[in-house]
Amino acid sequence: MDDLRNKWLAEIAAASDEATLEDVRVRAVGKKGEVSLRMRELGRMSPEERQEAGPRLNALKGEITSALAARRSALEDAALDERLRAEWLDVTLPARHRRAGSIHPVSQVTEEVTAIFADMGFAVAEGPQIETDWHNFDALNIPWHHSSREEMDTFYMARGEGDDRPPHVLRTHTSPVQIRHMLENGAPCRIIAPGRVYRADYDQTHTPMFHQVEGLAVDRAISMANLKWVLEEFFTAYFGTKVRTRFRASHFPFTEPSAEVDIQCSWEGGSLRVGEGSGWLEVLGSGMVHPKVLQAGGIDSAEWQGFAFGMGIDRIAMLKYGIPDLRAFFDSDLRWLRHYGFSALAVPELAGGV
Amino acid sequence: MKFTLSWLKEHLETDASVDEIAEALTDLGLEVEEVSNPAEKLRGFTIGRVLKAEQHPDADRLRVCQVETDQGEKQIICGAPNAREGIRVVVAHPGTYIPGIDTTIQVGKIRGVESHGMMCSEREMQLSDEHEGIIELPSGEVGESFTDWLAANEPAKVDPVIEIAITPNRPDALGVHGIARDLAARGLGRFKPYVAPVVQGAFPSPINVSIDEDTRAGCPLFTGRVIRGVKNGPSPAWLQDRLRAIGLRPISALVDITNFFTFDMNRPLHVFDASKVRGDLRIHRASGGETLEALDERTYTFEPGMMVISDAEGPESIAGVMGGEATGVTEATTDVFLESAYWDPVTIARTGRALKVGSDARYRFERGVDPAFTLPGLEAATKMVLDLCGGEASEVVQAGAVPPDDRSYRLDPARTASLVGLDIPAEEQRETLLKLGFWFDGDMVFPPSWRPDVQGEADLVEEVARVASLSQLEGVPMPRPRPGVPAPMLTPMQRRERAARRTAAALGYNECVTYSFIDRESAALFGGGTEAARLENPISSEMSHMRPDLLPGLLQAAARNQARGFADLALFEVGPVFRGGEPEDQRLQLAGVLVGATGPRDPHGQRRPVDVFDAKADAEAILAALGAPAKAQVLRDTDGWWHPGRSGRIALGPKKTLATFGEVNPKVLRTLGIKGATVAFTIHPEEVPLPRNQGATRPALELSDLQAVERDFAFVVDRTTEAATLVNAALGADRTLIETARIFDEFTGSKAEAQMEEGKKSLALTVRLQPREATLKEDEIEAVSRRIIDKVVAATGGTLRG
Predict the structure, then answer these.
(1) Which ipTM did the prediction report?
(2) How many CB contacts within 8 angstroms connect chain A with chain B?
C-alpha cells in the first residue's frame, strides 16, 4: 500500500504539465485507475481484511486527489507566472484622454458670496438687465438731470419711431433690484442681488460689462453699525482671515448717510495681502437706504430703515485669487479659463470654508 | 477739484500738515485723489557758488567749474552756456536723484575730467520747461537748502497741490472756501469768514438787464454792472501761479479774475466786452434755431426753451454755460459788463447735455452754486477788476431776486445713534451743524444757502456723522432673522441654474462669460439683430446688439481660441439672452459648443471628430440634472442656424422646447470663421417644468426577483425612418412586460443598400422583458416577440431582417 502511495505521489509531483497530470489522474484514480481497481477488489475480501484495507484505500484516494489538486493549482500558477512574464505594456504611455471642465471665477465667487450671505439670512434676488430708467435711476433718487446719470456712462436702448417712453437702459448697477424686491415683498427684507451690470467704459481697468452684488437689509432698527459688522463678517469669511474695514463719508443718491468702505491690506513686496498691514483698499459703496428710495419701493420710511451696499464681484475675485486683468474675464481664452477656473465639484460651502 | 495749500490757507488758519489735511478731507467725504508736493523731489538740492569756470581741455562746449558748496569746494563739469564765475547755482551732489532727467547723479569722468555733481536747470528739477541754462539765483547763501530758498522767494513753486473728487451733492466744495469750512468743522483750523466788499457805483450802468416772465424760474436772479476804462493785460504773478498750479492757463487779467472766483468761491462769472454789446441784455427762452458762436469757437444752435442772454442784435451767451465769441474780452477791451447770475440747475443741465457743451460754469451751475452769493460775488469781482485793471464801476443792475429758501428740518440727536450707530452728544451735533453754517430756531435746523443737497433729517445725520468721522464706527452684530440653522435661501430656479452649470463643467466644458452685446451681423444669424435689441450708444460696432442666443458669443470665443492654436474646444456659458429690448424679454439659457476632435491624438486610437451624438448626450445629461422628464420628444424642426438634417429639439410638445442640439449650420460657421467639426446645444432651464412632488421622499423601489429576458431584432426600413418610431412601436407591444427597448446597431450606407435594397437601412433593436409574477415560458416570449415585430412592421412599413 505504501508503495502504491509513493509511486503515485511521485508521479504527480513529476507531472510537468496539465496533460501529464490528467494522465496520472486517470491511471491512478480514474474509473479504471489502479486505486479504483484496488477498491473494487474490496468486495472480494473477507470482512476482516475489508475492515482494515477499506479505510486505508479511502485515505489513499483522498490523499492522491488532494495531491492532484495541489499540483494542478501549482501548474496553473506557474503557467500564469509564465504568461505574466511575457505580458508587458509601456505604462508610461499617456492615459486615455478625459476632458476636464471648469467653472468661471465669476460664477465661483458669486456662489461664495451667496453662501456667506445666505448664512446671515440674505436671500438672492434677481432683476432684468434691460431696465426702465425709472427702476435704474428715478426710483433710486437719481432724477434725470442728476449729474451721476452722466457719470455712470449709461448704455441706452434704441427707441423706435413714435415710442415716446424714456429709453430703457442697460442697468448701470444692481441697485434697481432693490426697488423691484421691495415693491414685490415689502419690509422687512434681507437680500443680495448678484449679476451683470453695464457701463460705456473700456480701458485697462474697465470693461463695458462687469458684475456687482447688491446687498439690502430693511428692518425697524438696522443701523450703519450693523452694516459694518455684516461687511466685516463677510470679508473675514470670504478671505479666510480677519479683515477690518474702514468707513469713509461719501455720497450716493440712494443712501443717506453714505460711506465708502475700505478693507485692510498691505502691499508688501509688490503683492497685495488682505487683512494685514496698515494700508486700505476701497472695495465698495454703501449707506443707509435713502428715505425716498424706501418710499419708491412702497415702504414707509417713518417705520422702516436699513442699509444697502454694492461691490464688484470681478474685483473681489481678482483680489482673492490674484487675477491681474479684468478684461481677460470676458475673453474666454482657454488657457485663462483653465488656469483661473474651478473644479465642477468645488462647490463653495461654509463648513469647508469658501 | 484742485487747489494749493497756500490757497487753502487764505480761507483757513491752520498749522496742519499736508498729510493731515489730506487724511481729513478723505474722511470727510472729499476724497483726495492726488497730493503733489514739489518740495519733496527737491529735498537734496542746495545752493552753491561758482568760484572758477575754465574751458574743458577736451570739449568746446564744456566748462570745468570749481563750485563752493555745503560740502566744500567741488569740481563740476557743466555744459550750460551761462556757467561762469560768480553766479549762485543749484547743486546736486552725487547720489541725488534728478527728477527731470530721471537719473541719480554719480561721480564720473566727462571727457577725461572728473565731475563731482551737477548744476541744474529749471527743467531738470521739473520746475518749468526752462532749459536755456542753469539756474542763476539772485540771492541765497551757499549751503542753504534750495526748497527753503524757494519757499521764501518763490513759494508758488513749492506749493503742494491737492486734488479731490467732488461727489455731486457737494457743490460748495467746488470752491476752496467751502473746503476750508469742512476742515474747520473737523477741527483742523480756524475758518476765515468771507466778507465781500461793496463797491459804490460812480454812474448808472449804460447796459440794462431784463428777464422774460417765462424765464424767471430758470433765472431767478441776474446782477451785473459796467466797468469802464479798464486795462486788460496779463494778470499778476500770484494769480497766474494759482491758476497754473490747478492746471488752468492764464489768459488775461479779466478772464483770470472770473476763473479765480469760480474756484475760490464756487462763483462762476462772465465778462462781456461792453463795447460789443448792442443795447440792453435780455434773458429769455430760445424760440429754437438761433445760433451762437461760443468762446470755444464752436457754433451752437438753440433748441426751443433753452436760456439765452441776448442783446439788441441776438444771442450773446449760452446762459450759465458759455459766453459768445463776439462779445468776449480781448487785450484791447476797455469797457466790460460783469455778470453774476443764479441759474436753475435743472435747466442748465438740460441745455448743457442737449448742446453737448461742457464748461466750469455749467459744471457748477448744474450742481448748484450759492444763490445768496450772487451779488456779493459781483461786488468781490468788481473790486478785483478795479484793483488789477483799474477803471470805474457803474451802479449794479439787478433783475429778479435770491429765490426764497424755507427748508428746515428737525434735529433729533437720537436719530444719529439709531441710523448710524454713533453716540455723539447732542451739544456736539449742534456745534457741528453751526460750524457748517446751519442755523437753529429751537430744534429746527435751517441749512445754509450753499448746501442745496440738504433735503431732510437724514441729511442732518449725515453731516453730523461725517464730521465726527465714520472711522469711529464699531460694528454691531445683526442677528439672523430667526435663531438656529438658517433656512435655505435659493429658489428652485437658482438651484437649477447652479446644477446645470456644474454638470456642464463636470462633462468637461470650460465655462465662459461673454459680453451680453454682440455685433449686428452675428446677432442676425441667430434670429436677433433687430431694432428693438439695438443699443443707442454702443461702445463699438462689435457690441451693438443684445445677444438673442449664447451661441454666437461662444462660437466667436471658439474662433478666437482656434486663432491661438487651440483646435479642440468644449465651451459653455450660462446667462441671459434677450428676445427684444424690454425688461421682460430676458431669458436664461445654457449653451455648449464642441469643436474639433474628442481629444488630442493619442496611441489608443480614441480620437474622432465631435458629432451630433456627443452634443445630444451632454444636453440630455444636463437636462437630467435640471430634473427634466426622461420622456421628451425629439423634433426635427430646428432654427435656421442649425444644420437642417442634423439637429433636433428635445421638446414637451411642439411649443415647449427644453433643448436643441446638433451640428451648427455650416453657413454660420463660415461667417464666424470656425474651422472643423462643430456641434452645439442650447438649453432653456426656465422651460423645464418644476417637479410636482415638492417633498424629499422617493417613490418605493419595486424590484423583481424573476429572471429578465433580452431579445434582439433587426429590421430593414427606409433610410429616413427614425429610430424613435421603432422604439415607440416596440414599447407599445406590451407596456407592462417590456422594460426597455433600445437601438443597438445601425447598418446604413452603400454597403447596406447593396445587401438590402436602394434607400434602405437596417436597425437592430434589443428589448428587455421583465416578468412581474412568474418566470417567462418560451411560448410567452415567442408571443411577445411576434407582437413586437408586428407593431414595428406596422409602424415603419419595414420588414424583419432575415
Answers:
(1) 0.90
(2) 277
